[in-house]
Amino acid sequence: MISVVILYRRKYLPVKSRRPLSYATPVRPASRTSNLAVAALVVSIVGSPWVVRPLLLAIHRLYPPPSLIAVGVSVRLLCAATVVVVVLPIVAIVRIALSRGTRTGIRLALIGLAITVLSWALVLGLWFVHLRIPAIGPMN
Fold it and tell me: Fewer CB within 10 Å of terminal CB in the chain, N or C?
């Protein structure tokens, strides 16, 4: 009699679906834009040579050109800005890649890196052209 009841239950009663339980599955955190990627984009715009140059000119107006203070401050500021502007987008890209999908914004970091590389390439290219063309080269 027991075997008949077991067969009846197996055959005619609906089988529970094999869905995972909602309370037993881990909740995946929502993805959000990386603050580091946003900072990389902002710093790449602010640290571009088009913004740093007027700051350097303001430093040179405070101190006359032969002053070693102005030269030292401007060189340190330019080197620090260049390092931060290049390293910050790379760090943002690495952190986004290691976040397992919880952070987004890799495009922002890539745009920041592209702005940095292209602006400095343009500045160096213009400087090279300025030195090579005698008509607009440095006056002696």
Answer: C
* Number of C-beta neighbours around residue 126 at 10 A: 11
Cα separation, 81 vs 85, whole angstroms: 6
Cβ of 84: how many Cβ atoms within 10 Å? Answer: 15
Cα torsion through 128, 129, 133, 138, rounded to 10: -60
Nearest partner of 96 among 40, 46, 28, judged by Cα: 40
Rounded mean pLDDT of 62-82?
72
Taking the CA atoms of 46, 51, 56 and 61 in sequence, report the sign of the dihedral they define: negative
Task: State yes or no: pLDDT of 72 exceeds 80.
Answer: no
Look at residue 107 in the predicted model and tell me its pLDDT: 92
Among 34, 128, 40, 19, which residue's Cα sits nearest to residue 84? 40
Q: Rounded to an integer, what is the distance from CA 52 to the centroid of its chain?
A: 19
Task: Say what the pLDDT of residue 139 is.
Answer: 53
Structural contact between residues 93 and 106, judged by C-beta atoms closer than 8 angstroms: yes
